[in-house]
Amino acid sequence: MSHSLAGEPPSAGRRAAPLTTAVYSAAEWDLLTGLPGRVLVAAASPGPGRPPRGVTAGLAGLDAVAAGRAFDSDLVRAVVAAIYARHDETSTAGERLTDVVDLLAACRAAVRVLDRRADPADSAAYRQWVESVAARVCPAAAGESSPADRRFLDRLGGALGLR
Question: Which of 33, 48, 82, 158 has the highest count of CB atoms within 10 angstroms of its CB?
């Protein structure tokens, strides 16, 4: 199940409702549904050698999350639906959300969950989608990624098993 191009309408007959999430524990599902937001926050946060981000970067990240609705992956669409269905946005402390070491560990944990539970195509689509969130935020702020942004994106891609 490869993903569709962003903005492509859903294919005929494809379910709008997410797949059954019963194969994931509550902790695993929380990890998978929380990771895109954590990546967005980390990518939008300034760091050593990384410029401060503005509203444009945050909006680009939100757009990248929303683009998951058009992916040809039941898992990605289910995660996006769960993100949008949340009404009790009780997030953890901002420091935890932007700590790169913690974020990369969460990415590696998500990859392990996906390796155990997800269809390989859904796993690949999810990991590529999560990486695309950060890729959309980093260049959106400065027009072109800085060397520090490229290092961040490379580390993220490595933690997601894409490098």
Answer: 33
Listed in sequence order, the residues at least 6 apart from 119 whose beta carbon sits closer than 8 Å to its beta carbon are 1, 75
50 part of a folded domain: yes
Considering the domain boundaries, does residue 76 fall inside one? yes
**Domains held by the chain: number:** 1
Residue 108 lies in a domain: yes
18 belongs to a structural domain: no
- Per 3-state DSSP, the chain is made up of helix, strand and coil in percentages (nearest 5) of 65, 0, 35
The answer to whether the CB of 117 falls within 8 A of the CB of 64 is no
Instruction: List the domain range (segments joined by +) for residue 136.
Output: 26-159
Phi then psi dihedrals of residue 149, to 5 deg: -65, -45
pLDDT in tens, the chain (163 residues): 444 444 434 444 444 444 457 789 999 999 999 999 999 999 888 878 777 788 888 899 999 999 999 999 999 999 999 999 985 555 444 444 458 899 999 999 999 999 999 999 999 999 999 999 999 998 755 556 688 888 999 999 999 999 8
Torsion angles phi and psi, residue 157, rounded to 5: -60, -40
